[in-house]
Amino acid sequence: MTTVLPPASQPVTTDHPVTTDQPVDPAALVARRRPGYALEGPFYTSREFFDLDIDAIFAKHWIFVATEPEIPEPGDFITVELGRYSVILIRDDDGGVQALHNVCRHRGSRVLLDAKGSVGNLVCSYHQWTYAADGRLLHAGDQPPTFDKGCFGLKKVAARTLGGLIFICLSPAPPPDFDDVAERVAPYLAPHRLAETKVAAQVDLVEEGNWKLVMENNRECYHCEAGHPELTCTFFPTYGYALEEIPPRLMPAHARYLAAEAHLERACTERGMPFAPIEELQGRSTAFRVQREALDGAGESYTRDGRAASRKLLADFDTPRLGRLSLHFQPNSWFHFLADHVVTFTALPLAPDRTLVRTTWHVHRDAVEGVDYDPDILTDVWRMTNEQDGAFVGRTQAGVSSPAFEPGPYSTNEYQVDALVSWYIERLEEHLAP
Fold this sequence. Notes:
Blueprint: E1 3-4, H1 26-31, H2 42-45, H3 47-58, E2 63-67, E3 76-82, E4 85-91, E5 97-101, E6 116-118, E7 122-123, E8 130-131, E9 137-139, E10 158-162, E11 165-169, H4 178-189, E12 197-207, H5 211-218, H6 224-227, H7 251-271, E13 278-280, E14 288-293, E15 324-329, E16 333-337, E17 342-351, E18 354-364, H8 375-400, H9 415-432
Parallel strand pairs: 1-12
Antiparallel strand pairs: 2-11, 3-4, 3-6, 4-5, 7-8, 8-9, 10-11, 12-18, 13-14, 14-15, 15-16, 16-17, 17-18
Helix pairs in contact: 3-9, 5-8, 5-9
């Protein structure tokens, strides 16, 4: 059973439009970007940059869009909207994952209109052209004898799975470095067996901000101590700090972190589970970071006391105290793999000032709701954290829309924000190059 939970409150909104009416020269703004500083306002507010981001970032790189448990059976599908693109993800009859452009080869109608569901074949509601799950055209009425169905299948989108995560690339020439990344990340994901889980809950939250603000906010914990009381019950607030920069008030938390890390490293070593960080956040197309890290409190899961949210542990784990395997990919996704559940996050741009943040919780496929887990407890920490982050992003969108906005410098513990923005600028420079 999948529990879909609405957000408890809406993110901050503004009473004025936040897109600019003045012409914007993206190439000039990219060229004058000041390293170590936030981007200028038009990067977050202009239609020119939004369209450029779709073309240069979301249509050219590997984008996380869903998990295999979201389409568990043949015929199960979801549709994904990325700017002007609509993509169907569907489980085919052989159990594989297919990604197809949601555009009928007759006159261009959307084939599937629902966000998710299950079908036998893909039937366009306009003129009933019918396609198989792999995109082959099966039926097109009233065509001449010379009509060749083999020439009019749905156009395919590149798709890859990695430890149960589904990535797509809209480009006909996807970045080839995904193979290298997958080879190194797969051993971290494998013990959790995500493909053997089920979706326990999913929440869609539309944040009133540009997708880059959503991701920048996610890539630092400078704001966590004051901004996320539920999260910091288990998430050490020293994240991102170098040892010499940890404020005195956080030293007790750092001492707990060191003890918890020592315990986690012993547990991982005994079980042959990798835990060391791999961090390649810029200088490559498929940029990423992965590391298994300790949790505070009981050290088991993202709950207010740190204890497991599901009695039924994933795979064949023999202990819930295995910390959190944290993974993120540029440009739009982050993940937490725990012993008792997995949480996935994807940020999909809707408009210059609106971003869909989809959070999905996975538990063991044999876990029973109300017996092994309570959906409210399972989702509590990240529902609250997402809503808080939505408010921060909304306030920032309003601020960067002001003529008074001037980019400020990043703090040292915001180095991952700087890396994200630097990666983004690298990709725009490649796209804009003659």
